[in-house]
Amino acid sequence: MSQEQPSRPKEPVKYGDVFEVSGELADKPIAPEDAKMMQSEETRVFGHTQKGGPAAVMQSAATVNIRGGFVHPGDKTDLVAERGVTVEQTVPAATVTTEFVGGQVVGQHVEPRRIVAAARTDEEALQGTITIGEALEATVKTAGNKPVDQSDAAAIQAAEMRASGTNVIAIAGVAASAQSAADYNATVDRDERKIKLRDVLTGAAGKLSVDRAVTREDAEGVVSAEMRNNPKLCTHPGGVAASLTVAARLNERVDI
Of 78, 67, 56, 64, which Cα lies nearest the Cα of 13? Predict the structure, then answer.
């Protein structure tokens, strides 16, 4: 009596099945060379691959896809070939490592820096935390290539108002720039011609009339604004709301 063979999967594992990505990448099957590239990047940054991280997830998915005959050893996704796989680190009050496939965020790791508790002035305390402006600037690293839309503009506006403590939007401020970008992008069809988040948020801290440390309430307000203005009622991975949320979480470890 022969043993029953395991059934082959009917559909490949795609990026959209395991990561919060969108567009063309979401419909692409994960290929073995994609996984190898992420393994190489994680090893370069961390010294090893991360247990349960994007590289491990991609390797498991690629193995399933090879077994199902959807991809072959040596295959690489065309978007990965064009845009690459990267792991980047930024170091504000913490080391934030963001992993990208085809220009989209697939993973983010946060390692808080050790902060020595001591009697501090308000200025010294601010230097030990992440400000709203710094969190906005961090978005350039995690989602800088994203075209600005209404959900981004709403989130940036909420962040600016939280920083200033008023409902007034500065005429030449970062929120006004974001709204103008969103309005313009709504009239443009091709993404490469649209204004990106990096164009609006680079140097954001210097564009705020008032800046202060991010709190949980600030993050919740920004998350709410971004979700309300997104047709899918969700936030963008690595976007404005995500950056404020990470900053607030880190600041809770500091006496602010």
Answer: 64
Between CA 177 and CA 206 the distance in angstroms is 14
Place of tokens 């309430």: 217
Question: Which residue is it, tokens 């949320």?
Answer: 245
- Residue 79 — φ and ψ, nearest 5°? -65, -35
**SS in 3 state form for the chain?**
CCCCCCCCCCCCCEHHHHCCCCHHHHHCECCHHHHHHHHHHHHHHHCCCCCCCHHHHHHHHHHHHHHCCCCCCCCCCHHHHHHCEEEEEECCCEEEEEEEECCEEEEEEEEECCCCCCCCCHHHHHHCCCEHHHHHHHHHHHHCCCECCHHHHHHHHHHHHHHHCCCCCCCCCHHHHHHHHHHHHCCCCCHHHCCEHHHHHCCHHHHCCCCCECCHHHHHHHHHHHHHCCCCCCCCCCCHHHHHHHHHHHHCCCCC
Q: Are 256 and 250 in contact (CB under 8 A)?
A: no
CB 146 within 8 A of CB 242: no
- Phi and psi at residue 115, in whole multiples of 5°? -115, 125
Are the C-beta atoms of 115 and 254 separated by less than 8 Å?
yes
Given a contact cutoff of 8 angstroms between Cβ atoms, the answer to whether 247 and 133 are in contact is: no
- Average pLDDT for 139-146: 89
Encode pLDDT of 197-228 as tens digits. Answer: 999 999 898 889 889 999 999 999 999 999 99
Confidence (pTM): 0.56
Looking up tokens 């590289």, which residue turns up? 55
